[in-house]
Design brief:
Blueprint: H1 5-13, H2 18-28, H3 36-47, H4 51-58, H5 62-69, H6 77-86, H7 91-100, H8 111-121, H9 126-135
């Protein structure tokens, strides 16, 4: 997960032959998580956290967390954001998790999303975020 998307795009755009395309596709085959559970496992490994750590920090039901991690449950947007806070994800990591889950990335033109982005960028807790959301009369994280 260390390659920048821009670098990969540049490499892909400079690909001119079917052989080069095949090499590119082979290079990325197993390198990038294709589903949320794989992505979360990679994030946990990168940050030195366990699934139990993520569960405790997020406050999400233990069974539900394990179902997310084995791919049998697909969390909604707020749960993914909650997990992002629990794992201390960067904004880029959170956006990627939302994108992989097909739950819509955070949008700067949305007041609620703007507060979430602010909270992530300023390392606020979910409690602090929920206080901000309440202050602006917006729905708190579920």
């Amino acid at each position: 997960m260390t390659d920048k998307t821009k670098d990969l795009m540049d490499k892909l755009m400079s690909t001119e032959t079917p052989e080069e395309l095949g090499n590119y596709l082979e290079d990325i085959r197993d390198k990038y998580p294709k589903d949320l559970s794989s992505y979360l496992k990679a994030i946990l490994e990168e940050k030195g956290l366990s699934i139990a750590d993520m569960q405790k920090r997020s406050g999400i039901d233990r069974t539900y967390i394990y179902q997310i991690m084995d791919g049998s449950k697909h969390p909604k947007r707020d749960k993914i954001i909650d997990i992002a806070f629990a794992c201390k994800m960067t904004l880029t990591e959170c956006q990627r998790a939302l994108e992989i889950a097909k739950e819509g990335i955070l949008y700067a033109k949305s007041r609620r999303d703007a507060l979430i982005i602010y909270a992530i960028n300023n390392n606020l807790s979910v409690m602090d975020l929920n206080s901000l959301l309440e202050e602006y009369d917006l729905p708190q994280l579920q």
